[in-house]
Design a protein that fits this description.
360 residues, alpha/beta, Rossmann fold, 2 domains, 19% strand, binds adenosine-5'-triphosphate, binds magnesium ion
């Protein structure tokens, strides 16, 4: 990794400054508790600050109250060290924090426009759509672009790619890099891939993600896909509530990581048919409201002949609109004939209807 990354200049990213804080600097944590935490895989103040109460209490064999008190104390220490926002911050300070937000280009300027400039850090962006709609291709393209300097649309960073479907192909990343006249060997070295085989393994990886983000200097974490393993393993077991609870825990951890580490989290999701839909597209995102509520941005991808249509389905501030892009040897790409701008705004009433359709 280059010096710029090591100095942490590029991001206003707290993880680089964290090195000085020891877990025993936290009020109420002495050597014995530190040891227990270490055994549970919690090595840094940051790891503890993003932990979930339920999981921690099981891991260190304590009451939920004790676990919660450790997490709160870790967060307090981060606040005192100005590495985490105070409980209440003024709107102008919130705006300041948003300014530390970075954007990564997707490879298609039309898709970037839909996202108002690219994939954001401090957020969870969900791409969902049927097979072949381009979800994994977007993820592969991001691998090539993230390593690029900020002025070229990248994040000057590593990428963590969590592959739950066995569809990650390094040679595709290489092809995309070559087609974009980028250095493939440098890019391939900056992508850390983890192939995950079952839902418990995925949950474990997400639990330890803070450490991997530090290790790989990653600004993007991709999970392709977030639901396939849980969906397959919990199918027909009558344990839907259990599945949703576990997905929920994982997604909330991802949101905390996105905000605290100033990283972009990309998740892909499948669709399921919704036979009760009489108008419009009879498909909706899998996973129900749990994923919908956890994603900051939801983008629906659809095939349209050789092209793809991306629709912004949910966002706190983007206009609801759609756009067209394509997939070429360069990965995600603009359509030739329409050139760069093809984003169209939709009327709110139509959009509201679509949102109703997607909500369970
Ligand atoms: N080298 C390439 N050049 C052009 N198009 C490509 C190339 N590689 C893949 N594609 C296109 O991308 C499609 C696959 O898209 P992708 O793998 O992103 O689908 P997905 O949305 O992830 O689907 P799934 O739900 O099955 O994972 C192919 O059908 C093809 O149209
Ligand atoms: Mg895929």
């Amino acid at each position: 990794m280059n010096n710029e990354l090591e100095n942490g200049e590029m991001s206003g990213n707290s993880q680089m400054i964290m090195i000085d804080l020891d877990i025993q600097d936290i009020e109420g944590i002495g050597p014995t508790t530190a040891k227990k935490l270490k055994e549970a895989g919690i090595l840094s103040v940051m790891d503890l600050a993003v932990a979930s109460t339920d999981e921690l209490s099981v891991d260190i064999n304590s009451s939920k109250e004790t676990a919660a008190s450790y997490i709160i104390a870790a967060q307090r220490l981060l606040r005192e060290s100005h590495l985490l926002d105070k409980e209440f911050i003024t709107a102008d300070a919130a705006l300041q924090k948003r300014k530390a937000m970075l954007r990564c280009a997707t490879g298609s300027t039309a898709l970037d426009d839909l996202l108002l400039g690219g994939i954001e850090t401090q957020a969870v962006t969900e791409f969902y759509g049927e097979f072949g709609s381009g979800k994994s291709q977007i993820c592969h393209t991001l691998c090539a672009i993230a390593r690029q300097p900020v002025e070229n649309g990248g994040l000057n960073s590593g990428v963590i790619y969590i592959d739950t479907e066995g569809t990650f192909r390094p040679e595709r990343v290489e092809q995309i890099a070559r087609a974009r006249e980028l250095d493939p060997s440098e890019i391939l070295k900056s992508v850390a891939v983890c192939k995950v085989y079952n839902s418990s393994h995925l949950e474990l990886i997400v639990k330890d993600l803070g450490r991997y983000i530090d290790d790989f200097k990653a600004k993007i974490v991709i999970i392709d896909s977030i639901i396939s393993l849980h969906r397959a393993e919990f199918a027909g077991r009558g344990t839907l509530a259990d599945r949703q609870q576990r997905l929920n825990g994982m997604l909330h951890k991802l949101i905390r990581l996105a905000e605290i580490y100033n990283i972009a989290v990309i998740i892909t999701n499948q669709v399921q048919s919704s036979p009760d839909t009489f108008f419009g597209d009879p498909t909706k995102a899998a996973g129900g409201n749990v994923i919908g509520h956890a994603s900051t941005y939801r983008i629906y991808l659809r095939k349209s002949g050789e092209n793809r249509i991306a629709k912004m389905m949910d966002s706190p501030y983007h206009p609801y609109s759609d756009t067209r892009f394509t997939i070429t040897e360069k990965g995600t790409d603009d359509l030739e004939e329409t050139g760069k701008k093809s984003t169209s705004k939709k009327s709110t009433s139509k959009k509201d209807k679509e949102i109703e359709e997607i909500e369970e």
